[in-house]
Structures are given as structure tokens and as C-alpha cells.
Amino acid sequence: MTDQGFSLFQITLQQRAASVETLLSELLSDQPHSGEISRPARLMAAMRHGVLNGGKRLRPFLVMESAALFGADNFTALRIAAALECVHSYSLVHDDLPAMDDDDLRRGQPTVHRKFDEAAAILAGDSLLTYAFELIASDETELDAQCRVTLITALARASGIGGMTGGQALDLEAEKIKPDEAGIIRLQAMKTGALIRFACEAGAIIGRAGTKDRDRLAEYGSAIGLAFQLADDLLDVTAEARDMGKATGKDAAAGKATLVSLHGVEWAKLQLAGLVEQAEEVLAPFGEKAALLKDAARFIADRRN
Amino acid sequence: MTDQGFSLFQITLQQRAASVETLLSELLSDQPHSGEISRPARLMAAMRHGVLNGGKRLRPFLVMESAALFGADNFTALRIAAALECVHSYSLVHDDLPAMDDDDLRRGQPTVHRKFDEAAAILAGDSLLTYAFELIASDETELDAQCRVTLITALARASGIGGMTGGQALDLEAEKIKPDEAGIIRLQAMKTGALIRFACEAGAIIGRAGTKDRDRLAEYGSAIGLAFQLADDLLDVTAEARDMGKATGKDAAAGKATLVSLHGVEWAKLQLAGLVEQAEEVLAPFGEKAALLKDAARFIADRRN
Which PROSITE patterns match (chains A, B) (predicted)? Predict the structure, then answer.
């Protein structure tokens, strides 16, 4: 990775993050949108706290860069990216609840149930999830109806029973019955992998890519999703809570098996390098146009927080 | 209401309920559906417990009868009805949580967090909500894509910020700052009214009704939604916990203002009669075809549990 390449990636990541935050901040204002009776101020504040928290906005970046690969309209990609970030944020808000991971901090700030209360966090999460589907279904983009239902189907699958919430459920069980390696891989592919894969596939759907290209983006998404979780597990072992803005060492404390606890840190680093290589290879047919997506794969593997 | 009319309504309500339960039981099986990696058994059990609980299935009935009014395909209406019941059920599962209404019983059975645990109840609710949108977006019905996005938009609005979850948020605040009469009406229109109204409007959407007829069904839905909440508030004051299968007198205990606490039981009964009349009048143009929907309005106003 050249310094220049890394720098362009970092700048673009920040620009994309700023765009999606501006849109989310408008969308989640207190002002009722058309067709709404009212927007309860405290609920909206809890939703904004859960979403506008200085996240890296990696998933929105992946949607927008993947869509750009196929020349898709930028405004449209931005709205789908915002919807996906609502789903990601809702999952964090619920995951932080006392009955789940019981986290007080996220990115150095109090979690939604600590800043507001548990009921507000439950409802804010529910509302964010619902709003994500409303955003995609709305006719304010240039997407035709078929494209919108394709996105909704893919997002619901990635975030529901067979995807994210299913993976979270398996994760809770994993604290009692330790899964074997295949079980861990399946759990992680569902819990964090499915939504990252969706982000990349969504760009191809928005850009009306052919089946072959859509499959390529999905494969790229699977590789970086796996890398993301592996890097996360590594960080849980090696990073300081200060750098993460949240508690670390929680997996070990919970007796939770990860690929890192099974195979060790050195093995995990080799695996990560292999996944980055796989991601780069699958993007090779797109040439220079995919440079930032390749950078994203390296960024995910190398991240420190 | 004649005995015969009541009986036909009761039989139809039960038949519709049986159909939607059979479909929900198939949809929420442990067997992974196409495109899903896995279905965690405990999560599915928690979802089934939250959904297959002997509910009256009033909302599915309203979808199916409204759709039948416009000659819509029965299988299609049934799937949309099942999706709506998933949304209704998720809201009950989350509403019963200790941080929300803290209920141990629903229809005489332990609530999901009592039978499983809080984490399972949170995830089961999240998964049911997500699954509802997947069901509507799926291409297994004869609905075209435009019709599906119209339904998704309407459902998301009815159940999100400006609808159900917004109403729940207002309801939580109402325990601290007592709303005035207009505030109570708005709260109830959002919390319970919006989803009942959606049920009726959905039938018109599925049946490709014209704007005028769709508005009629929405107005009918608003009237019976208001009646539903008024009857609920009355029951909270007058019914026995035994009949309700859940705790009663909770509103008064929580110091929660309702239209019944403001205006008294006799006023509420008169209001209910007026709402039934309004519902019947708005359906008048449909003649005999709408007989069961008129029965439904009376059933809602007269219900004992």
C-alpha cells in the first residue's frame, strides 16, 4: 500500500462519512415527514444518539464505492447507504443493552440505554430498523420498484434470521455451548459478515450490474466480512480499551471461542493477509476503478480500532 | 347484530386465524429457507412463542376481508396478513419486556422473556420485524413490485416513528407528563390506530382499489382503531385479569391518563357506539359484501378480552 493510495482512501472514507451523516441528520430530525402524525422528540434524540456517533461509516462507504463501480447515481447510493447504516446502528443499540452485551460505552460515549434508558434504546432500535425499510421503499430515488424490492429482500435476509440476528442468537448460545471451528465461521458469517456482504452487493444492485459482477461484489464482501471479524477478534485480544472506545478482552472473559483463540494471533494475521489477497483478486477485472475498494480491504485487515 | 350475523363473523374470524397460523407456523419453522445459512433453533422457538400464542388475529382478518372486498387473490392477502401479524407480535414481545411494560403473562402464557430470556425476546422481536418486510418484498405472491413497495412504505410508516413505535415512545413519556385530550388521541392513533388502519388499507392496496375506495378503507380503519383503543381502556378499568389473560388496572396504577379516565365509562360507551356507526356508514357503498367488516367493528367495540 503506497502512502498516496492510503491517503486517498482515508480522505474518501471521511468524505463519504460526512455525506451520509449529513443525510442521516436531516432524515432523523424532529420535524415530521410527510404522512407522519408526529415525531416524539425524545425518541428522535435517542435515534440520533445511536446513529450520529462518529462511526467510520464503513458500510455506507462500501455501498457507495460499489455503486460507483457501475456508474450508479450518487444520491441514490447515498440513500441506500444511509438505510444500511440505520440497520447497523440499530443492531449496536440493541446489542449494547444490559440483557445482551451490557456495554456502557461505544466510541467513548455512553450507549443509548445509558444516556437515555432501556425502553428508549429498545424503541430507538426498533424505529431505526423500520425506518431503514421505509427509506429503501420510498420513491425518492431513481430506482425502479423492482430494484427496490430486490434491495429490501437482500437487506432483510442479511439482517434477519439467516443473517445478523440469527448470528447474534448463535453468539449468545456460544457462551454456553462452545461451537467448533465450522460453527464459529458460520456464526461470524451471519453476525457480521452478512451485512458487509450486503453493502457490497447493494452497490451492484443499485448500479444494475449483471449477475456475474453482482456475484463478484458479493464474494469481495464475504472476504472482507470475514477479515473484519478476524481483525475484531484480534483487537479484542491485543488492543487497549482506550483505543477502541469500548471494553476489550470481553470474548476471553466470557469464555467465547473465536478463530483467534483457537489458532492464535500469528495464524490470524496470515489469514487476514490471505483474505486481502482474495478480495483484491476478485476485483481485478475492474482494474483501477476498484482501487479504493482494494484499499478498503487492507484498511479492514489492518485497523487498530 | 343478529345471532346469525355474529356467528358467521365468529366462524370466519376463526377460519382466517387458522389459515394465518398455519402459514406462520410453516414460515417460522427451524428449516432454513432458500438463501439462509442457518436458523438458530432457540431463536425460532422464541419467535414462534411470540407469534403462535392463540391471538384473535384481528389484523390478519382485516387485511383478508378488505382484500376480498376488491376480489384480491386469497393466497396473496394471506401472506401480507402474516407479515402484519409478525409486526404486531414483535411489538408485543418488546412491549412486554421489563424495561417497557414488564408483563409476565400474555394470553395466560409466560411472555417471551419469561419463557426464554430478555436477550432472546429482544432478538426474536427484531427478527420478526425484519422478517415481515422480507415476506412482503418476496416475489412469491402475484403482486407486482410497485404494489409491494407501496405496502412496505405504508407498513413502515404505520409501525415506525410516525406510527406505532412513535406512539409507544409518547406512551412512555405520558407516565411522566400527562398529555391533554388531543395528546391522548394522537398517542393512541399512533400506538394502536396506525397498524389497524394499515390492515384495512393494505386490503385495498392488494386489491388494486382506486384512491377513493382506498381512502374509505383507511377511514374505516381509523374508526375501528380508535374503537379498539377505547374498548381496551374500558377493559383495563372493568375487566378481570382472568378474562384478559394479562394484568388489568395497569393504566390507573401507572397514573396513565386515558379517554376513559378523563370522561368516564358511560361517555366511552357512547363514543364506541358512534365509532361503530361511522365505520358502518363509510362501508355503506360496498353493500352486503362488507357485512363481515361491519360485524368486525361491532366485535371490536363489544369485546370482553
Answer: POLYPRENYL_SYNTHASE_1, POLYPRENYL_SYNTHASE_2
